[in-house]
Amino acid sequence: MTQRTLVLLKPDAVRRGLVGEILSRFEAKGLSLVALELRTIDAEQADAHYAEHVERDFYPPLRTFVTSGPLVAAVLEGDEAIEVVRALNGATDGRKAAPGTIRGDLSLSNRENLVHGSDSPESAAREIALWFPALAG
Ligand code: CMP
């Protein structure tokens, strides 16, 4: 089934010059770009995006990190796009993510793990509406 998913290339990806490399992996897989924007977010947008994590111990430094510089927000579309993007991203902790995945090849961190992908159809709908309201619906 064709799906859309919200992807963030976090500030570490922009700082490290990995935006092209990461987008290339999604494009090479066959996913299509529906929306793409460089954006610097404030704490309010970070809290809205990570609403399910705001009470967690790891959240305050995560908020500092995701607001620390520009990130790239994108909507990708394709067959089973939500699962496909999560497989390409790899496990959350870059130290444990499998080689061949974005995090496994390019990240050594649990926090600065380069990418975010929606984790379910419900999350994708919520996150796409939050980041790209014109696409909601
Ligand atoms: P993401 O896929 O964007 O979803 C939640 C984010 O929180 C995750 O990627 C990491 O950036 C961060 N995260 C999750 N668990 C931890 C943790 N234990 N320590 C630090 N950061 C974390």
TrEMBL record:
<keyword id="KW-0547">Nucleotide-binding</keyword>
<comment type="similarity">
    <text>Belongs to the NDK family.</text>
</comment>
<keyword id="KW-0808">Transferase</keyword>
<comment type="subunit">
    <text>Homotetramer.</text>
</comment>
<dbReference type="InterPro" id="IPR036850">
    <property type="entry name" value="NDK-like_dom_sf"/>
</dbReference>
<feature type="binding site">
    <location>
        <position position="92"/>
    </location>
    <ligand>
        <name>ATP</name>
    </ligand>
</feature>
<feature type="binding site">
    <location>
        <position position="58"/>
    </location>
    <ligand>
        <name>ATP</name>
    </ligand>
</feature>
<feature type="binding site">
    <location>
        <position position="10"/>
    </location>
    <ligand>
        <name>ATP</name>
    </ligand>
</feature>
<dbReference type="GO" id="GO:0006228">
    <property type="term" value="P:UTP biosynthetic process"/>
</dbReference>
<dbReference type="Pfam" id="PF00334">
    <property type="entry name" value="NDK"/>
</dbReference>
<dbReference type="InterPro" id="IPR001564">
    <property type="entry name" value="Nucleoside_diP_kinase"/>
</dbReference>
<dbReference type="GO" id="GO:0005524">
    <property type="term" value="F:ATP binding"/>
</dbReference>
<feature type="active site" description="Pros-phosphohistidine intermediate">
    <location>
        <position position="116"/>
    </location>
</feature>
<dbReference type="InterPro" id="IPR023005">
    <property type="entry name" value="Nucleoside_diP_kinase_AS"/>
</dbReference>
<keyword id="KW-0597">Phosphoprotein</keyword>
<dbReference type="GO" id="GO:0004550">
    <property type="term" value="F:nucleoside diphosphate kinase activity"/>
</dbReference>
<keyword id="KW-0067">ATP-binding</keyword>
<keyword id="KW-0963">Cytoplasm</keyword>
<dbReference type="GO" id="GO:0046872">
    <property type="term" value="F:metal ion binding"/>
</dbReference>
<feature type="binding site">
    <location>
        <position position="113"/>
    </location>
    <ligand>
        <name>ATP</name>
    </ligand>
</feature>
<keyword id="KW-0479">Metal-binding</keyword>
<feature type="binding site">
    <location>
        <position position="86"/>
    </location>
    <ligand>
        <name>ATP</name>
    </ligand>
</feature>
<feature type="domain" description="Nucleoside diphosphate kinase-like">
    <location>
        <begin position="2"/>
        <end position="137"/>
    </location>
</feature>
<keyword id="KW-0418">Kinase</keyword>
<dbReference type="InterPro" id="IPR034907">
    <property type="entry name" value="NDK-like_dom"/>
</dbReference>
<dbReference type="GO" id="GO:0005737">
    <property type="term" value="C:cytoplasm"/>
</dbReference>
<feature type="binding site">
    <location>
        <position position="103"/>
    </location>
    <ligand>
        <name>ATP</name>
    </ligand>
</feature>
<keyword id="KW-0460">Magnesium</keyword>
<dbReference type="GO" id="GO:0006241">
    <property type="term" value="P:CTP biosynthetic process"/>
</dbReference>
<dbReference type="GO" id="GO:0006183">
    <property type="term" value="P:GTP biosynthetic process"/>
</dbReference>
<comment type="function">
    <text>Major role in the synthesis of nucleoside triphosphates other than ATP. The ATP gamma phosphate is transferred to the NDP beta phosphate via a ping-pong mechanism, using a phosphorylated active-site intermediate.</text>
</comment>
<keyword id="KW-0546">Nucleotide metabolism</keyword>
<protein>
    <recommendedName>
        <fullName>Nucleoside diphosphate kinase</fullName>
        <ecNumber>2.7.4.6</ecNumber>
    </recommendedName>
</protein>
